[in-house]
Amino acid sequence: MAVNNNKTQNLDDEDMFVTLDLDDGTQVECEILTIFEVDKQDYIALLPLSDEESEDGEEVYIYRYNEDEDGNPSLENIEDDDEYEAVADRFDELLDEAEFDEM
């Protein structure tokens, strides 16, 4: 999976976007929601901007996130069910914390 950075702003200051090159040859423009850590591994949560596949418009893509020594990002699919469950649970906790902070 390839990642094309369209913006390189601080995550705290502005929204950042990437274009995902999917395995089927299509591209999806996504907003980076957050990068977070679970068990010493970084993960990235992406919100597709043209979300025609999702009925409720709330679909989020979560991938393993790594950077090489030059700072170039790479994403990997999460293949293990237990790993995905732990990562999804942590992402849900982050959402809950963000909603609580907005109150």
Throw out a few tags for this protein.
6-stranded antiparallel sheet; 1 helix; about 100 residues; 6 strands; alpha+beta
- Looking at the structure, what is the overall shape? globular
Q: What series of H and E elements makes up the topology?
A: EEEEEEH
Oligomer: single chain
Structural class: alpha+beta
Strand order of the largest sheet: 1-2-3-4-5-6
Work out the radius of gyration.
14 Å
Number of helices: 1
Number of strands: 6
**Tally of domains:** 1
Report what the structure shows.
The chain is 20% helix and 40% strand. It is α+β, with helices and mostly antiparallel strands and 103 residues long. The protein has one domain. Strands 1-2-3-4-5-6 form a six-stranded antiparallel beta sheet. It is globular and about 35 Å long.
Topology of this protein?
Elements: E1 2-5, E2 16-21, E3 27-38, E4 41-48, E5 61-67, E6 73-76, H1 81-101
Antiparallel strand pairs: 1-2, 2-3, 3-4, 4-5, 5-6
What would you say about this model in short?
The chain is of the alpha+beta class and 103 residues long.
